[in-house]
From TrEMBL:
It is found in: Membrane. Its main location: membrane. It comes from Streptomyces nigra. This is Lipoprotein. Belongs to the nlpA lipoprotein family. Keywords: Lipoprotein, Membrane, Palmitate, Signal.
Length: 277
């Protein structure tokens, strides 16, 4: 059984709102006790599953006491690291972290050489089997956080559904659409809600971890999906600034990018999650 603490998004929202958001980290913040448990926040799938695999199979031999705390949103894993409630998190990619730090005044950083996997973003639909089959005026649900919404729009653009304004980067919104031949409507939702929205929209662009939790496979069920080639959205281990050299963090970084974890990802997810190392 998993030794994890699952916390609902609703309960976490209050904690997120009370964050002091003071960037008080320094380069001397590393943990004083190298033998203390390493507490890591993660979304359940696949990050929590990968960490649980490490906890059950690899951590003891490496001399690491690992505690996995699962969260169901994309905010609290960062606020928990910033406030010192956990030592690290594993759930996000660099464009999301850059945006989060900018908006919230936090100082969370990626651990070097600890980018673990990519979850291809996919478009899913109960009504059509190809994006080209979407009718005029169809409604498409998108994740409402800045970088993943831009990522979703770029996926739609790559498949010829829309065209974005020239030069639009990781902060694109529907307002940046230059051409929308099908006159699609866009419904912006919290990423975790997107799988449940499929019954109410014509299509939804869903993050890989939430697709997996809903028994949707980017490799089998998506009507369009991101290519892993040169993809900037790999998920990595992150800590508060100053804690990258914590020996416990370094042990976990090494385990996360081990041959054993790569095989676990390949065997368990069958292309729905792709190792980035």
């Amino acid at each position: 059984m998993r030794n994890t603490a699952k916390i609902t998004t609703a309960a976490l929202a209050v904690g997120a709102l009370t964050l002091g958001l003071t960037a008080c980290g320094s380069d001397n913040d590393s943990a004083s006790d190298a033998n203390a448990p390493l507490k890591v926040a993660a979304t359940p799938t696949p990050q929590g599953e990968i960490l649980t695999y490490i906890k059950d199979n690899l951590a003891k031999k490496a001399g690491l006491d690992l505690e996995v705390k699962e969260f169901t949103d994309y905010v609290t894993p960062n606020t928990a690291v910033q406030q010192g409630e956990v030592d690290a998190n594993y759930f996000q990619h660099q464009p999301y972290l850059d945006d989060f730090n900018k908006k919230n005044g936090t100082d969370i950083v990626a651990v070097p050489n600890a980018t673990v996997h990519l979850e291809p973003l996919g478009v899913y639909s109960k009504g059509v089997k190809k994006l080209a089959d979407l009718e005029k005026g169809a409604t498409v649900a998108l994740p409402n956080d800045t970088t993943n919404e831009a990522r979703a729009l770029k996926l739609l653009e790559a498949n010829g559904v829309i065209e974005l304004k020239a030069g639009v980067g990781y902060e694109a919104t529907p307002k940046d659409i230059a051409s929308n031949p099908k006159n699609l409507s866009f419904k912006e939702l919290e990423a975790a809600q997107l799988p449940r929205s499929l019954a109410d929209v014509d299509a939804a662009v869903i993050n890989g971890n939430y697709a997996l939790e809903a028994d949707l496979s980017p490799a089998k069920d998506a009507i369009a999906a991101e290519s892993p080639k040169d993809n900037p959205y790999g998920n990595f281990l992150a800590v508060k600034k100053g804690n990258k050299d914590d020996p416990r963090v370094q042990k976990l970084a090494k385990l996360l990018t081990s041959p054993e974890v790569k095989k676990f990802i390949e065997d368990k997810y069958n292309g729905a999650v792709v190792a980035s190392f």
